[in-house]
Amino acid sequence: MARDSRVFVMGQGVDxxxxxxxxxxxxxxxxxxxxxxxxxxxxDAMTGVGIGAALMGMRPIQVHQRMDxxxxxxxxxxxxxxxxxxxxxxxxxxxxxxxxxxxxxxxxGAQHSQAFHSYxxxxxxxxxxxxxxxxxAKGCLIQAIRDDNPVIMIExxxxxxxxxxxxxxSYEIPYGKARVLSPGKDITIVGISHMALECVRAKHLLEAAxxxxxxxxxVSLAPLDISTIAASVERTGRLLVVDTGxxxxxxxxxxxxxxxxRIGERRHFVxxxxxxxxxxxxxxxxxxxxxxxxxxxxxxxTYRLVRGAEAPAWQPGKVDSAEVAEFRGPF
Amino acid sequence: xxxxxxxxAARLYRSMYLIRRVEEEIVRLYPTDKIKSPVHLSIGQExxxxxxxxHLDKTDVVFGTYRxxxxxxxxxxxxxxxxxxxYGKVDGCARGKAGxxxxxxxxxxxxxxxxxxxxxISNAVGAALALKMQRSKxxxxxxxxxxxxxxxxxxxxxxxxxxxxxxxxxxxxxxxFAIYSHVKDRMAGPxxxxxxxxxxxxxELIEDHEPMLLHERAGAAVAAVRSGAGPRFLECMTYRxxxxxxxxxxxxxxxxxxxxxxxxxxxxxxxxxxxxxxxDLRKSIEDAEEKRxxxxxxxxxxxxxxxxxxxxxxxxxG
Lengths: 331, 318
Description:
By secondary structure, chain A is an alpha/beta fold. In chain A, 33% of the residues lie in helices and 16% in strands. Chain A has helices at residues 27-31, 43-55, 74-81, 84-87, 117-121, 134-146, 194-206, 226-236, 251-263, 285-291, 295-307, 322-325; strands spanning 7-10, 36-37, 59-64, 97-102, 127-129, 151-156, 179-182, 187-191, 213-217, 220-222, 238-242, 270-274. Chain A has a seven-stranded mixed β-sheet, sandwiched between helices. In chain A, strands 7-9-8-11-12 form a five-stranded mixed β-sheet, with helices on both faces. The longest helix of chain B has 24 residues, at 279-302.
């Protein structure tokens, strides 16, 4: 915002005392109320307002505390933001960032926990990024702000408090470049957003079973870096995709089919997908624990995929997902 | 002659005549199947876009709807490129990717049109927000039909425009019908002026068949918005002579009485304005516009279709 006076931030609560989980805290004081402002509860029109401002040369960042509310803005995002460049043959561009935060835990329930990244991956004209590490979160956001196209930035609530090394200087994370979080030779595990973190934990559990997993974070979902994933599967012969979302018509389906199209003819491989259970998210903790993949369930699925159905039973050890265990509500 | 030809009536007639004749030519050409795009004609409704746009500068921007030929032409959009667009040709204003429903010409402030009802309204409000942030003297004019006011997006947009005192003029082209659904079957309460005022936006209604009054009131509204007084709303009563979509008449559907349509055609706004002009001036305007229309069609005919690989162009910017 200091670098480019066209950049502004809008969204319900961006200038309040909570500052969008701290991510927009104080921006209105630093850059003025004109460049960081609260909006009416009108996701449809306010998204359209962002698009209209972008058409006139501004670079809006829209923030949604919960991705569930982005459904109210789908018309603008799909029918307008994604179409402006194409429909008008390059006469217009929409340099806009939509930050969509996914909730989880402390009883978020069915309407405060949904992840709709696959909806946006389906639409030509939209870029979708889902960084996991603090380093990638900063680089993806900067890249998104500087891009001339609409970018949906998926932020998992559980990742907001995860610590990591972040360079002071400004840098961009390029689209369509997956990150190998941890190399391995027995299986390729692709983890999306928060699940990438859980997959790394699963990898450590699997060491006890003598399984060496490679964990890949796609970082960018549209465009997808299938080359990196497919090259890994070509080596390991096994693919597990773990999504922060439902399986049906989801990001995991897309990754699996693209890998198959890429190498299926010359490389036999086994594959499985994990994600949210095919139910709405239950509120009570005891059921919610079943709803999400965990390091244990990821490790167990990996074990079966690597050792086969006939292998003796194996019980992964315990590991704490600190950001989940330590999270306290109410929000 | 110079003064006469630049009178409000002369300017209005020139604009309305161009719109009428372009659309009559579309009707004539449609059976050849050279225009492979749904067309939503403004014949009968020309006065609204022409009267409002006459008060705008090139740097003022407008947003319209899929019934957008009149607005594109009234704002000074390139006529040959519009015809080429309807033909799906590479010299079209969007290289054939837009068709009739998405005309665009940013060089003259024609920001585009949307085929999803009411969807462009909030974009217009956002453009007004940008102009205000940029300390620009330009204003935004947002055109939509009364059907769009059924949508929540209109209400959300009116609220935000008023809240932020944005430089935007809302123009409702009330032609009574959303396709074939009459406004009385869709709208509760005391009407659009009352709704607008409830959002703190000054509103006015101008009856059909009063093109010069419409021109004057539009001028006052534009001046008010430009002065920084915040948004204004004009409800312009008008009437669509042709079918909702396509070149034909639609009497066969019997959703409106024949004599209602006949009376509207009888009270033709184009004729009202034309009759205000001396015969020689009227003739010279008509001759000049006829030539523009003919040249535009010739341009469209001569243009080529896009190459296959263009299908991948412009999905993203840059």
